[in-house]
Design brief:
The protein has two helices and three strands. It has helices spanning about 15, 20-30; strands spanning about 1-5, 45, 55-60. The protein has a three-stranded antiparallel sheet with strand order 1-3-2, with no helix packed on it. Strand 2 (about 45) and strand 3 form a beta hairpin. The N and C termini lie close together (about 5 Å).
Length: about 60
């Protein structure tokens, strides 16, 4: 099984705040993963602090 997390930081790496935005996304989903069985097919969209869709995480075989 694989856990895949992909984030598109855009052309300007979150307006120069890549570490801040990525940290926020990882903290949020790190705490939220307990609500999932984490079986193949699970996944959700990822959003930045402005609630724009910037990626997705998925569990694959």
């Amino acid at each position: 099984m694989k856990f895949l997390l992909e984030v598109d930081m855009g052309e300007d790496a979150f307006e120069g705040k890549a570490a801040e935005e990525l940290g926020r996304i990882l903290r949020y989903w790190g705490g939220n993963l307990g609500h999932y069985a984490l079986t193949p097919g699970d996944g959700e969209s990822l959003h930045d602090s402005a609630y724009r869709k910037v990626g997705r995480w998925t569990v694959t075989e």
